[in-house]
Specification:
β2 and β3 form a beta hairpin. By secondary structure, the chain is of the alpha/beta class. It is globular. The longest helix is centred in the last third of the chain and has 27 residues. The strands form five sheets. It has an eleven-stranded mixed beta sheet with strand order 7-6-14-8-9-13-10-12-11-15-16, sandwiched between helices. Bound molecules: zinc ion (2 copies). One zinc ion binds next to α4.
Length: 775
């Protein structure tokens, strides 16, 4: 019977969704089908790829197996694969690729920029290959996409490669369905494609011939020079990471005093000399996305101390552009490769702008003439509970969608938040989140935000009539959303959006116990929320508990100067007993100017420019300051990161805390006891590493307790974690472990960062759910 079945000729219609367009999927289908002598066809439509296959059942099964394993194109991601038997067709004698169904737009035809693949790397190293040492070699499995696309459809005329006419050799590969470069839009060679040159910082050409450009750049880097190198998504500023003076010079010129720099090597072995690389970290470093991965520092490594101070990790990536490999082949060991921009402005991607803006930083410029249409930063990843999660989502991942378990009845735009902004479009069953845009208060970033929204709307043909944004009336993103004509605007509470982002990623509608813990988010009561336990679904949320409010003096300054939340927390803890003079020695260690203590204290007493807050981020700032790590966040979360970095391992102790019930009002987490005990520890000169561990453990236990109380009331046992505080690996790993040990099912962000980069995804998910329910 089995034998009979296997021999039977059948026809199947197969429908595949996922990232299956623009990644060489149809050629792969064609080649497998042809090799198995199956007949039929394949074509793209708006939702995915449709295949009809005719042949013996065993061959069809083998086809499906190979398509999902060894013959799957490297960049393809199959989300669903449905097969159904249909009647046989008698007039068919071969397998063909049909023209795409042009009704509407394919959703995922523009894919992310991918790192140089092994095949291309091998080819560029072979002297007989016509792309030997060519800095722009690429194929269907690698190279730029998102950064060079101007418009859809994704064809060469709509990319920045439109100025380069393919030579016969390149065109032959481009048009051959069995070639690795079939329809690879940026295909080029030394004869027909872009080239490189080296200029000084006045734009005068130093070297023009490709090989001389490479050797001269490498020579300058080895001599401690700073070189602006044009890459895939923008310019990097490169400097020898083993040369402390050179790195310090880069810091001075870039006016970036503190934030750690990312580094690049050309092999895992080299990275291993400086940092601890686990197997999963190695896989991530070598992935086509090629992100920066945060790795624990090795003690006494040779990396210049100025590269990354005050943190216990190094950010490393592997070479990902052919140009990087050519440079590193000239005896380069490890380079700082930091974003080519001024402070927090958008990345610079255009040659003229680079010369204008970076001339005071870089000694020379390694330029090329393949224009970058969209700047895309390097992505940054780390590990939580053994899973790779993003801290900054950009190159390699964007515009990859988050697939949801429902179909949006109309297009939706979500404006995101103002810090670490991303925005998001909901279309059909996809949430398409932008890359990291930045902090919108910077005028350049804000302009970039508006231009980016228009660009992505064009690429995905999104015409939203519903717009979601934050509740904060002063957010620029909110004001932008409210200014869009003829749309329905939904304002969504910040921490609810955080929890919804986790639900969307995990294909759940909720409800769950949501723990949203971060710096600031506007609350429904007008207070600044920041440590929230929400019973949340995509439809609604209820505030179950939060950190007890404390006064935060000084609005904008409060997130920079730790002395402000500290004084707020002290007045909350000691109430009317609080005497400034009693705490002078502690405060003077943090801020020597005692007059400042008095001014802030008066501000608190008179309630001037002071807000009520449940911010957890500011508690971390205050504790970091008390243990002697400084009084100032020069970049976001500098103090909390320094506090995490000094935490002593293997400590189980924690301080006391209280959960206070108050009738129908949300449960209050009161940290007064913790603060008193912690101050006593500091005064008794207990080591900062131990105090930090006990503090982190307290927060983990307090959040566990909060979740347990929520479970008692709601009977829910899934906890979703989101918010910037969960970028803290020590805290999050400990909390996840505690929750699991107490039989909770734990969900956290994996596709987008848990910081405010998640907000737009959550807004889009909520708006999709609410819109669908109404229509
Ligand atoms: Zn390739
Ligand atoms: Zn060519």
């Amino acid at each position: 019977m089995c034998v009979l079945d296997v021999d039977l000729v059948k026809r199947q219609k197969i429908f595949i969704t996922g990232q299956v367009q623009g990644v060489g999927f149809r050629p792969a289908v064609y080649q497998i089908a042809a090799s198995l002598t199956l007949t039929g066809f394949v074509y793209n439509d708006t939702k995915g790829v449709t295949i009809e296959l005719q042949g013996r059942q065993a061959q069809i099964s083998e086809f499906l197996r190979r398509l999902q394993s060894e013959d799957k194109p490297p960049l393809a991601v199959i989300k669903t694969c449905q097969a159904a038997e249909i009647p046989l067709v008698e007039t068919e004698d071969r397998f063909i690729i049909k023209a795409s169904d042009s009704e509407g737009t394919a959703l995922s035809q523009v894919t992310a920029d991918m790192a140089l693949c092994r095949d291309c790397l091998a080819e560029m190293s072979q002297t007989e290959d016509f792309r030997y040492r060519y800095p722009f070699i690429n194929c269907t499995n690698c190279g730029p996409r998102y950064s060079i696309v101007k418009n859809i459809p994704y064809d060469r005329p709509n990319t920045t490669m439109s100025d380069f006419k393919m030579c016969d050799k390149c065109a032959a590969q481009y048009t051959n369905v069995t070639n690795r470069r079939f329809h690879a839009q940026p295909v080029a060679c030394p004869r027909c494609g872009p080239g490189i040159w080296l200029t000084d910082n006045a734009g005068r050409i130093i070297k023009k011939e490709s090989d001389k450009v490479i050797t001269e750049t490498a020579r300058m880097l080895s001599a401690g020079k700073i070189i602006a190198i044009k890459g895939i998504g923008g310019f990097h500023l490169a400097v020898d990471a083993l040369n402390n003076k050179a790195v310090q010079r880069l810091r001075q010129r870039k006016r970036r005093d503190h934030k750690p720099f990312a580094m690049m090597c050309d092999s895992i072995e080299k990275i291993k000399a400086y940092a601890i690389v686990t197997e999963s970290a190695e896989r991530l470093l070598k992935s086509p996305q090629s992100p920066i991965v945060l790795l624990p520092k090795k003690a006494d490594s040779a990396i210049a101390s100025a590269v990354a101070e005050g943190v216990d990790t190094f950010g490393f990536m592997l070479c990902y552009a052919p140009l990087h490999y050519l440079l590193f082949a000239e005896n380069i060991n490890v380079l700082v490769m930091t974003s080519g921009n001024i402070s927090d402005e958008p990345l610079i991607c255009n040659n003229e702008q680079a010369l204008e803006k970076l001339a005071t930083i870089a000694d020379a410029f390694l330029m090329h003439n393949r224009d970058i249409y969209r700047q895309v930063d390097d992505s940054v990843m780390h590990f939580i509970d053994g899973q790779a999660v993003p801290l900054r989502r950009a190159r390699g991942y964007v515009p990859g969608p988050v697939f949801i378990n429902k179909t949006s009845s109309r297009d939706i735009f979500a404006a995101g938040g103002d810090l670490k902004n991303t925005f998001c479009f909901a279309k059909q069953n996809q949430l398409i989140c932008s890359e990291h845009i930045g902090d919108l208060e910077d005028a350049e970033v804000y302009h970039h935000y508006i231009a980016s929204i228009e660009h992505l709307a064009r690429l995905f043909e999104a015409k939203p009539k519903t717009v979601a944004c934050d509740l904060h009336p002063a957010y620029l993103s909110t004001q932008y959303a409210l200014s869009i004509p003829d749309v329905k605007v939904m304002q969504i509470q910040h921490h609810w959006a955080h929890i919804a982002s986790v639900l969307a990623e995990h294909g759940s509608d909720g409800p769950v116990i949501g723990l949203a813990v971060d710096g600031t988010g506007y609350g429904t009561d007008g207070a600044i929320w920041g440590c929230e336990c929400l019973i949340a679904s995509l439809k609604e949320f209820k505030r179950f508990g939060h950190l007890a409010y404390y006064p935060l003096p000084g609005a904008d300054k409060a997130s920079k100067e730790a002395i402000r939340p500290l004084l707020g927390l002290l007045t909350k803890t000691y109430g009317s007993d609080f005497k400034l003079d009693k705490f002078r020695p502690l405060l003077e260690r943090i801020e020597p100017d005692t007059e400042k203590h008095d001014i802030i204290f008066q501000q608190l007493k008179k309630n001037v420019n002071t807000l009520e807050t449940s911010s957890m981020g500011r508690v971390f700032d205050a504790v970091a300051a008390m243990v002697g790590l400084g009084n100032y966040n020069h970049f976001e979360a500098q103090l909390p990161m320094a506090l995490e970095a000094i935490t002593e391992d293997g400590i189980q102790d924690h301080y006391d805390f209280e959960l206070i019930a108050n009738g129908d009002r949300p449960l209050q987490l009161d940290l007064s006891r913790m603060l008193k005990q912690l101050i006593a520890d500091v005064q008794n000169k207990i080591s900062a590493g131990l105090v930090s561990a006990k503090f982190h453990n307290t927060i983990a236990h307090a959040l566990l307790k909060m979740a347990q109380k929520a479970r008692e009331t709601t009977k829910l046992d899934t906890v979703a974690l989101s918010g910037g505080v969960f970028c803290n690996r020590y805290l999050t790993n400990r909390l996840v472990k505690l929750l699991k040990k107490n039989d909770f099912n734990v969900l956290f962000n994996r596709d987008v960062p848990s910081n405010d980069g998640a907000v737009s995804l959550g807004q889009a998910a909520i708006a999709t759910c609410l819109t669908n329910n109404k229509s």
